[in-house]
Design brief:
Blueprint: H1 2-6, H2 8-37, H3 70-80, E1 90-95, H4 102-110, H5 113-116, E2 120-127, H6 132-141, H7 155-166, E3 170-178, H8 183-193, E4 199-206, H9 209-215, E5 221-222, H10 228-239, H11 247-259, H12 265-275, H13 281-289, H14 302-311, H15 315-323, E6 333-334, H16 335-344, H17 350-362, E7 367-368, E8 381-383, H18 386-396, E9 400-404, E10 418-422, H19 430-433, E11 440-444, E12 448-450, E13 464-466, E14 472-474, E15 487-489, E16 510-512, E17 534-536, E18 558-560, E19 582-584, E20 606-608, E21 630-632, H20 797-802
Parallel strand pairs: 1-4, 1-5, 2-3, 3-4, 9-10, 10-11, 11-13, 12-14, 13-15, 15-16, 16-17, 17-18, 18-19, 19-20, 20-21
Antiparallel strand pairs: 6-8, 7-8
Helix pairs in contact: 3-4, 6-7, 10-11, 10-12, 11-13, 14-18, 16-17
């Protein structure tokens, strides 16, 4: 009975909330009926005056000249002048972050002397309210009128007016601040501006790269951030730095403040206006040490400008973007980790996570990191602009706690759902600083962590636990109590084996323990993780065998075992992972064979077998992987700086005895002192093949470059038989391969690639490619191969009649190089 009574308060709250929602729905129904009764129309306005838009731009240049965009201006003018065809419209799109200076740069192009020679120049501010009729009417209003007033409310009339007014003219049209994303509307805009017989150049500015790609005639022009010294010049001009009394000491502080602008001209201009009112050095130091974008100021319109892009996002994308504030400024965000954390928090689905990242990249809210990766690493990382990070923190509000253990700073914990812990040590109890409803917890700059047992027992709602910025981690046994945990990122673990308590996490979907070289075994009951979809064991070199229950992970989609050099054998039950799409076995140098059941993974799309030195064959059923899109069987990892090949060893005897059927294509040999080409194999003169009688002398030409075999080398005069010396008999001479140790073994009939350098007669033929390092299954013979003619066989009469006539003998006194040309 006491247990039943304890549930009454919870039930009462749920009933009260349901009644409240019911009353709200009744009120909304009454409002909807009143709208229908009074015939209200959505968006109607009683007066004809258009609302004032403070963001509207014009073509007038500011009084002060533009700083730092001269090169970009010339590049855009060059793109507009590239097309000389008057029947084709040229559209150049400029995209970039809000406040980057797109409109100001376009004003410089608009007022350039080259375009002042055009018949008409038109500037149209599009704004967020895209209206094709409004754009057409605005263009017509800026052209000299012909005839009486016409009805501009009809799109057909607008198109006819534009065609009549722009026919045979050179026109520059600027469409500033375009937000429309629908391809159908953009196609209508393009057709409206295209007039046959006229040269129409269009410049479009937008914040989204997706819009720029849909509308641009070529590649969109993405505006780059300014350098820090140029931002400092803008700050000095806006803040009237030359009138400051203590300029020498303020110089270095001003350079540090300019770095916070991140190359955004609008931010530099706002900072200059803030510093204009501060004349003492202490005020500049205070601005430098504070978060300047959260300072309340009437002129601070940087974040409102960026927030406009945020408000145009879809609701799900807003939540995903705001969550990025859990990462510290300047952090390199791993793309897979970010996507899986969004999925763990139910922000999006697997199919849309990658698309959301692309949208943030197109809006310049994310940038691909320039951090160099290792030769084997294929991880994509992203970074965030500091201003964009401040915007994300602003939108997150009190849902995020940024706790620094050294400063002991906390704020609003009541509604906190996400937390970033910096410099955490074991003396602080997590339950004392975090609410019980925390959903995502990330540790930053914490070094090696030895978390005490029971540290996470309070967090019953925790879904994400991220230790990626810790140099080492020892997981406590209490982690098994996190029944809602879906994403665990714990690289560089110090445990000797993965704790058995992890198998109690029944909802775990993402497990990343890369770089945990001390882990030697996985739990035998790892098959209990029935929801596990992504497992990263990259760099776990001490693991020698996977447990048998590994085949019970039916939901596994992504398996990364790169660098697991301790694994020698892959079990057959690996083929039970029917949903597997990504399998990375690169660097598994001890694996000797791929099991046949692995070829039954019909959904496999990515397979990496590079740097598997002990792997010499692929299974015969490898062709059954119909969905495979990527296959890498490179024998060795690429080196960043490859050294040039060593010089060839000195000539030695004896040599190969295999007959030479075809000669490999080689570049022409270096000319001899007499001007004649040397033997391409640099053989001693006594071992060179002699030309049979009756065979004409071939002329060295660009044969190898054209795909022909290397011509027969002419012998120098000193090697010709002197008077009284025995002349070799007619017919083919002994094989060159039997006498020259540098001759290579011939290719196998029917194979387009050469054999290995020293083939083993006991192994089946056939290297599919020199860089594969693997032998493919032997081909089924279809009868004896036809004999390959040798270059030393006598020439038939029919072929001899088609040969070019022999060159005349060199007269005495004629230079030798003249005989080598016709």
């Amino acid at each position: 009975m006491p247990g039943v009574l304890s549930c009454l308060p919870v039930a009462y709250k749920k009933i009260a909330m349901a009644n409240r929602m019911k009353s709200l729905r009744e009120k909304l129904r009454k409002i909807e009926k009143q709208i229908a009764i009074f015939d209200f129309k959505k968006g109607s306005n009683t007066n004809n005056e258009q609302p004032y838009d403070e963001r509207e731009t014009t073509s007038y240049l500011p009084e002060e000249p533009l700083i730092g965009r001269d090169g970009e201006k010339q590049e855009i003018i060059k793109l507009l002048s590239a097309n000389t065809n008057n029947d084709e419209i040229v559209i150049v799109t400029i995209c970039g972050l809000g406040g980057m200076g797109k409109s100001t740069l376009t004003k410089q192009v608009y007022n350039d002397a080259q375009f002042k020679m055009y018949d008409h120049r038109i500037w149209v501010y599009v704004s967020q309210d895209f209206n094709l009729k409004k754009i057409g009417s605005s263009i017509i209003s800026q052209l000299p009128s012909q005839g009486g007033p016409q009805n501009m409310g009809i799109q057909q009339v607008i198109n006819q007016c534009l065609e009549n007014l722009l026919l045979g003219k050179k026109v520059l049209i600027v469409l500033d601040d375009l937000w429309e994303e629908k391809m159908t509307e953009l196609d209508k805009l393009r057709r409206m501006l295209q007039v046959k017989g006229s040269k129409v150049d269009v410049v479009v500015t937008t914040r989204k790269e997706q819009i720029a790609r849909k509308l641009s005639s070529g590649e969109p022009y993405k505006l780059r951030p300014l350098e820090d010294d140029i931002c400092w010049e803008i700050i000095k001009r806006s803040g009237r730095f030359e009138l400051k009394p203590n300029k020498e000491n303020m110089e270095q502080i001003g350079l540090d403040i300019a770095k916070k602008c991140g190359g955004v001209p609008l931010a530099a201009q706002v900072v200059g206006s803030m510093l204009q009112k501060i004349d003492d050095l202490s005020g500049w130091i205070e601005i430098n040490s504070s978060d300047i974008w959260n300072i309340s100021s009437e002129d601070n319109d940087v974040l409102p400008s960026l927030k406009l892009s945020y408000e145009r996002m879809p609701p799900q994308l807003r939540v995903c973007f705001s969550y990025c504030s859990i990462f510290p400024k300047g952090h390199n965000i791993v793309g897979d980790d970010l996507a899986q954390q969004w999925i763990a928090l139910d922000f999006t689905e697997q199919s849309k996570a990658k698309e959301y990242i692309k949208q943030l990249l197109g809006m310049s809210f994310l940038h691909v990191s320039k951090l160099p990766s290792t030769c084997r690493e294929q991880v994509v990382r992203y970074t965030m602009h500091d201003l964009v990070h401040d915007l994300a923190r602003l939108t997150m509000d009190d849902k995020l706690i940024d706790f620094n253990a050294q400063q002991r700073n906390t704020r609003g914990q009541k509604y906190c759902r996400y937390s970033l812990l910096k410099n955490y040590n074991q003396t602080i109890k997590l339950a004392s600083i975090l609410p019980s409803k925390i959903r995502a917890l990330r540790f930053s700059d914490s070094g090696e962590l030895h978390i005490q047992s029971g540290a996470f027992s309070f967090a019953n709602c925790l879904r994400i636990l991220d230790f990626s910025e810790c140099s080492g981690i020892l997981l406590p046994a209490s982690i098994g109590k996190l029944k809602q945990l879906r994403c665990l990122i714990a690289p560089r673990m110090q445990d000797e084996s993965l704790p058995e308590c992890i198998t109690e996490l029944g909802k775990l979907q993402y497990l990343n323990i890369n770089g945990s070289s001390q882990i030697s075994a996985l739990p035998e009951s790892i098959g209990k993780l029935g929801c596990l979809k992504y497992l990263c064991l990259s760099g776990c070199s001490s693991i020698s065998k996977l447990p048998e229950s590994f085949g019970d992970l039916k939901c596994m989609v992504h398996l990364d075992m790169s660098g697991c050099s301790g694994i020698r054998e892959l079990e057959d039950w690996l083929g039970k992972l029917r949903n597997l799409q990504h399998l990375d076995l690169s660097g598994c140098s001890s694996v000797k064979a791929i099991p046949e059941p692995l070829c039954g993974l019909t959904q496999l799309q990515y397979l990496d077998l590079s740097s598997c030195q002990c792997l010499d064959r692929l299974p015969e059923a490898i062709g059954s992987l119909m969905d495979l899109q990527y296959l890498n069987i490179h024998s060795q990892p690429p080196r960043a700086h490859a050294r040039p090949p060593p010089p060839p060893p000195p000539h030695r005897a004896p040599a190969h005895t295999a007959p030479l059927a075809r000669r490999r294509h080689r570049p022409p040999a270096r000319p001899h002192r007499t001007g004649r080409p040397r033997c391409p194999r640099a053989c001693p003169r006594a071992l060179r093949p002699r030309r049979p009688r009756g065979r004409p002398r071939a002329v060295p030409s660009a044969g190898p470059a054209l795909g022909r075999p290397f011509p027969w080398p002419r012998r120098p005069l000193s090697s010709r038989p002197a008077a009284g010396r025995a002349v070799p008999p007619a017919g083919p001479s002994p094989s060159h391969a039997a006498r020259c140790p540098r001759a290579r073994p011939r290719r196998a009939p029917g194979w387009p690639f050469p054999r290995p350098r020293r083939p083993d007669p006991g192994r089946p033929c056939a290297l599919a490619a020199p860089f594969f390092g693997l032998a493919l299954p032997p081909a089924t013979p279809r009868g004896p191969p036809a004999p390959t003619p040798s270059v030393l066989d006598p020439v038939p009469d029919s072929a001899r009649s088609r040969r070019r006539p022999p060159l005349p003998r060199r007269p005495s006194g004629m230079p030798s190089h003249l005989l080598l040309s016709r």
